[in-house]
Amino acid sequence: MNRMIVLLALIFLVGTAQAGNVYAAGGSVTGKISYEGTPPPPEHFTVSKNPEFCGAERDFFHITVKKGVVQGVAVLIENLDYKTGKFKKKGKGVSGKPMETNVATMIGENCAFLPFTGVVERLGSGKKGAPGLQITNNDTVIHNPHPFEVRGAARRSLWNKGLPEQGDKLNELLRVKKGNQVKIQCDQHDFMHAWLRVATNAYWTMAANDGSYKIDGIPAGKYNLVAWHPILGEQKTEVTVGDGGSAEASFTFSGPGRGR
Ligand SMILES: [Cu+2]
């Protein structure tokens, strides 16, 4: 009888130890991003540099809505950070789902930086953990990417580098301090804008074109969930994810958003 209890206890212990390490089998959050109302019109530009290549007139959509879905929204879990003590710091990044998108990839093509929005992970608080940005110029005109750290109304220039030839590529660090947003402009073409949100863990995703999103592998707990668009701003909600369970949170944006 006693041997049976010991055996059962051993099976239980082994089972628990394994479950504790397998965050891939964790819970998930799903939902949908939508936009209510009529989005503002695009910003109109008369092109002064390279109009023969970029076009004499350009419209730039700071907010793009397709079938009631605002495009380019990132969804992130915020309070799941190597600093909180919720996870132990383990090498670079957190234990649990490892961070792997420390360098954002972008192209300059047809006189636009693409994609318009993205997320890049910072691996720590110091310079070593700073995220990176790789941009390739696919055009036959010069582009001059110029990223700024954005914190509220404050902007701090990070660097600016020219990509004069087609195929030219740069790979530079984005040494953001306390900000969690980076705006990339082109110093040659004022209608080229792109944005990055800086994440401190791997629990984020870009919503799909139909507005749906899913973040998985989440350890059980209560989290702040943020939906971010650079112009429409942030919406926050709290979600509780059970062990291996799923939570639902949808976000509706509206209005013209803030300044650019
Ligand atoms: Cu340009």
Report on the structure:
With 260 residues, this protein is mainly beta. It contains 2 helices and 21 strands. The protein has a single domain (23-254), classed as Cupredoxins -  blue copper proteins (Immunoglobulin-like, Sandwich), CATH 2.60.40. Helices cover 9% and strands 43% of the residues. The strands form 6 sheets. A 5-stranded mixed β-sheet has the order 9-15-14-11-12, with no helix packed on it. Strands 1, 17, 20 and 21 form a 4-stranded mixed β-sheet that branches. The chain has a 4-stranded antiparallel β-sheet with strand order 16-6-18-19, with no helix packed on it. Bound molecules: copper (II) ion. Residues 111, 143, 186, 188-189, 192 line the site of copper (II) ion. Copper (II) ion is lined by residues 111, 143, 186, 188-189, 192.
Topology at a glance:
Layout (H helix, E strand, L loop, with lengths): L1 H20 L5 E10 L6 E4 L4 H4 L2 E4 L4 E2 L2 E2 L3 E4 L25 E7 L2 E3 L2 E5 L10 E6 L7 E7 L2 E4 L11 E5 L7 E6 L6 E7 L4 E3 L5 E7 L2 E9 L3 E9 L4 E3 L2 E4 L6
Parallel strand pairs: 1-20, 1-21, 7-10, 9-15
Antiparallel strand pairs: 1-17, 2-3, 4-5, 6-16, 6-18, 7-8, 10-13, 11-12, 11-14, 14-15, 18-19
The chain binds copper (II) ion.
* Name of the CATH homologous superfamily: Cupredoxins -  blue copper proteins
N- and C-termini, Cα separation: 72 Å
CATH class: Mainly Beta
Which bin fits the share of residues in helices?
A: under 10%
Number of strands: 21
What value does the average pLDDT take?
86
The distinct bound ligands, ions and cofactors come out as:
copper (II) ion
Oligomer: single chain
User: Within the CATH hierarchy, at the fold level, what is the topology?
Assistant: Immunoglobulin-like
Gross geometry: globular
Any idea what the radius of gyration is? 22 Å
Q: What CATH architecture would you give?
A: Sandwich
Strand order of the largest sheet: 9-15-14-11-12
**Order of H and E elements:** HEEHEEEEEEEEEEEEEEEEEEE
| Major sheet summary line | 5 strands, mixed
Number of domains: 1
Fraction of residues in β-strands: 35-45%
Low-confidence stretches: 5-22, 82-95
Summing up helix and strand content along with how strands pair, one would put the structural category as mainly beta
